[in-house]
Structure formats: structure tokens, C-alpha cells
Amino acid sequence: MTLPVRRPGRALALLQATARATADPGAASWPDRLAQDLRDLDADWRESAEACTDAAWTARATGHSVLGLLRPAQVTAAGPDPVTTRTFRHLYLSALRFDFRCATLQALVEQLPATARRSLDCYSRALYAFALLGQSRSAGLSVMDEVLTEAGEHAKTLHVLLHGLWLGQDLDQGAQRFLALSARSAFTPGTDPIVLLRRAGALRRLGRYDEGLAALDRALDLLPPGDTAVHADLVRERSVLCAARDLHQHLPARAFGGTPT
């Protein structure tokens, strides 16, 4: 008797596609290969976001940013098929996000033809919101709210929005919006070091220094061994938070409306 061939589940297939894309980030062909794998899977925008974000981050971390492999025209022009177009867009815009190139990301999305902008997938719109939020543009809050109505609890999308709120230091109610968003069920409370790092920054902006320090201490405990880059970010934020707390405690009373002595 011939046994039926077992077809791997979609989650496994996506992991395999990401693994193939990140196996040799220096190879010029990996974005095309990832696009092919996602096209074969007929991946939706959520699946594309999962694979492309991880691949773009790995490529950047190994010194082979996808910005050196793809051209802006591959983001603004229609590709051979919708999945390939979306793959290149997710890869390129994610790489711009990781480099904090907010103005470039914003301009690239706004160069899209009107029909393409109207039909942008949810994750691409989240990346556009990040670009606006990261520049403290209030329009980003409106785009964020539109994204949230469709994103549900898709963690990768919510991370993009959190990143923008964290970067946009001058956003009205930005810190409060960050804390509310970071409490969503997509993030198991108090278990993600990156969320805790950025949450500490929001708490610092609100003057809630002790809560911020507690969040950082928990993040340091949860951080996997060997993650030196995030560890450095946590230590840096802790130094800034402590300095802000000390400054607040030692400012003259009149700075807070008290009576000079």
C-alpha cells in the first residue's frame, strides 16, 4: 500500500521559506527566491509580513541590507504578480524602518500611483504609519487607527505601530497611546523584552520613573543570552531614565510650582 504524501502545514512552509531566504543573506537572489516561495504558497499579507520582516532584519544584521539588493522602482512599480509586488514592498519598507529612514519611507509610499495606495495591504499601511509617527506627524495617528481596525491582534503589525509611537517623541498623547497599545492581547504581558524596553521609554516621558525601571529590569532578565545589541539598548535607556529621575528629584521646588526658599 502506498502511503499518502504528507503536505507540510502553512506555518512550517513559511518557516522554511524564511530559512531559505536567510541562509545566505549575501546572495543577490534571495529576495526573488522568497517572492517565489510566497507566490507558491499564495501567501496573504500577514504571512508575507512574518517572512519579510524576519528576512529583512537578518539581512541587515549580517551587513547585507536588502536596500542594496532592491531598487525603489521595485516598490513603486507594479511587479509581475501581486504577491511579488507585495514581497518586495514589505522587504524594502521594513529595511527603511529598521534604519529609521522615516522621511524616505513616507516619500516612497506617497510616490505610489493612487490606485496602488488605495489598495495597500494592512502591513504596508502600518509601515507608512510608522514613517509618519516616527516624525511626530499627527497624521500618523489617523493612519494607525485605520490600520488597527483591520490588523486585529497581528503582533508584527502592532510592533510596527509601537515602534513609531516610541520614536515619535513629540506626538500628542503618544506615550499614553503607546501604553494602551502595548497592553493588547497580542503581547503576553511582561514577556517581550523589546516591548518592555519601549514601554520604559513611554513611562519615562510620563514621569513614571520607578515603573520604567521595573520594566527595564524585567526586560534584562528575559533577554536571551548573547543578544548584545538589545542589551546595550536596555542599558542605555536605563541610564537615561535614571538621569531623568535624578533631575526631576533635584530640580528647585519652583520648577513644579512650589514656593521658592
What topology emerges from the helices and strands here?
Elements: H1 10-23, H2 30-41, H3 45-61, H4 73-76, H5 82-98, H6 102-110, H7 114-118, H8 122-134, H9 139-151, H10 155-167, H11 174-182, H12 193-205, H13 209-222, H14 228-250
Protein described:
The chain is 67% helix and 0% strand. With 261 residues, the chain is mostly helical. Helix 2 (30-41) packs across helix 5, helix 10 (155-167) packs antiparallel against helix 11 and helix 12 runs antiparallel to helix 13 (209-222).
Summarize the structure.
This protein is an all-alpha fold and 261 residues long. The protein is built from 14 helices and no strands. The protein is globular, with a radius of gyration of 21 Å.
Topology order in helix (H) and strand (E) letters = HHHHHHHHHHHHHH
In terms of DSSP E residues, the strand content is under 5%
> What percent of the residues sit in helical stretches (DSSP H or I)?
55-70%
Termini, distance in Å?
A: 94 Å
Largest sheet: none
Rg over CA atoms: 21 Å
Keywords:
disordered C terminus, 261 residues, mainly alpha, 67% helix
